[in-house]
Write a structure and sequence with these properties.
- The chain is mostly helical.
- The protein has one domain: ABC transporter involved in vitamin B12 uptake, BtuC.
- It has a two-stranded antiparallel sheet with strand order 1-4. Strands 2-3 form a two-stranded antiparallel sheet.
- A hairpin with a 2-residue loop joins strand 2 and strand 3.
- It is globular.
C-alpha cells in the first residue's frame, strides 16, 4: 500500500473519531443558544399573564434567591452526570449538612459553615468511594444515601429544627442584599463561574468529560477513572454543603426535612441545559440557564395559582422531553 493511501486512511480515521465530538459540541451550542430565547419568552409570557407582579424587581430578585439553592446543587450535579453518574441523595445530604452545621455552630456562623460543608463533603466522599471503588451502581449507592442521610438528619436533630437566629452572618447570606442583589444570587453566580472554569479550562475538567465519554479509553490515555468518579461526588457534596448554608440562612433554621425533592429540580436543570445523561457531554452555562428557566417558569405558575400537582406534572413532562431529545441524539 502506498504512503498516500496510508495518509488518506489516517485522515479518514481521525475524521471519524472527531466527528461525533464535533456534533456533540454543536448540539450543546444550539441548546445553549435556544435557552436564552426560552427565558425571554417566559419573561414576555409572564408580563402578559401578570403585568403587575411578574416583571417587578422584587419578584425577579425573589426568583434569583429561590433558584440559588437549586443552582448551586445543579453545578455539582453537572460534574456527576458528565461522568455518566447520578446523585439522588443531594436533598437528604443537604438536610444532614444543615443539621450538622447547626449542632457544631448553633452560636457562631463560622463553625456552622464549616460543619455544613464538612458533612456535605463527607457524605459525598462516601458516595464516591462506594461507586468508584466499591463498584456499586450510582443509582443504588445514592439511593441508599438518599434514605440514610435523611435518617441521619432526623436522628441528629431529634426530628426538631435548630434555630439559627443568633447567626447573623449566615442569615445575611441567605436573606441579605448588596447593591440590591441578594447575596445568595451572588454565591450562585460565583459557584457557576468556578464550575465553568473547572470544567472548561482545566485538565481536571477534560478528564471528567473523557471518563464520561469512554472510561476505558480515558484509562488508556493515563486518566485514573476511579479518582475522577470519586472526586465528582465529593464536589457534589461540597456544592450541597454551600446550598445548605444558603437555605438555612434564608429559613433562619436548620431543618431535618429540608431539601425534599431537591434532586429532581437539580437533575431537571442539568438535563434541559444540555448535559448528557449518558455522560461525556456537559455544559455549565446550559445548567445555569436551565436553573433560571425553571425558576421563571414555576414562579409564573405560582402567580397564576396553578395547583402544585400540575406544576410537578409539568416538570416531569419537561424532563421526559429533554431525555427524549438526548435519546434521539444518541
Amino acid at each position: 500500500m502506498t504512503t498516500d493511501a496510508l495518509d488518506s486512511q489516517d485522515v479518514a480515521a481521525e475524521t471519524a473519531a472527531t466527528a461525533p465530538a464535533a456534533r456533540a459540541r454543536r448540539r450543546i451550542q444550539l441548546q445553549e443558544a435556544a435557552l436564552p430565547v426560552v427565558v425571554v419568552a417566559l419573561l414576555v409570557a409572564g408580563t402578559i399573564a401578570d403585568r403587575q407582579q411578574f416583571l417587578t424587581r422584587d419578584n425577579l430578585l425573589t426568583v434569583l434567591t429561590q433558584a440559588s439553592v437549586v443552582g448551586v446543587v445543579a453545578v455539582g450535579m453537572t460534574f456527576v452526570i458528565a461522568t455518566g453518574g447520578i446523585d439522588l441523595s443531594v436533598g437528604s445530604v443537604l438536610a444532614a449538612a444543615a443539621i450538622a452545621g447547626g449542632l457544631v455552630g448553633e452560636q457562631q456562623s463560622l463553625p456552622f459553615i464549616v460543619g455544613a460543608l464538612g458533612m456535605g463533603v463527607l457524605l459525598g466522599l462516601i458516595n464516591g468511594v462506594a461507586i468508584a471503588y466499591g463498584r456499586i451502581v450510582p443509582f443504588i449507592a445514592t439511593l441508599a444515601m438518599f434514605a440514610g442521610a435523611r435518617g441521619l438528619a432526623l436522628w441528629m436533630s431529634d426530628k426538631t429544627p435548630i434555630s439559627l437566629l443568633q447567626l447573623d452572618f449566615v442569615r445575611e447570606l441567605g436573606r441579605g442584599k448588596v447593591a440590591g442583589i441578594p447575596y445568595a444570587a451572588l454565591v450562585f453566580v460565583a459557584v457557576t463561574a468556578g464550575g465553568w472554569v473547572l470544567l472548561n479550562r482545566t485538565r481536571y475538567g477534560r478528564h471528567v468529560i473523557a471518563v464520561g465519554g469512554n472510561r476505558e479509553a480515558a484509562r488508556m490515555a493515563g486518566v485514573r477513572p476511579q479518582r475522577i468518579v470519586c472526586s465528582v461526588y465529593v464536589l457534589s457534596g461540597l456544592c450541597v454543603g454551600i446550598a445548605a448554608v444558603l437555605l438555612s440562612g434564608r429559613l433562619g433554621s436548620a431543618s431535618p426535612v429540608a431539601g425534599n425533592l431537591l434532586e429532581l429540580d437539580a437533575i431537571a436543570a442539568v438535563v434541559i441545559g444540555g448535559t448528557s445523561l449518558a455522560g461525556g457531554r456537559a455544559t455549565i452555562t446550559g445548567t445555569f440557564l436551565g436553573v433560571i428557566t425553571f425558576g421563571l417558569l414555576f414562579n409564573l405558575l405560582n402567580l397564576l395559582d396553578m395547583p402544585t400537582e400540575l406544576q410537578q406534572l409539568t416538570k416531569g413532562v419537561i424532563i421526559l422531553a429533554a431525555a427524549a431529545l438526548q435519546r434521539r441524539d444518541r
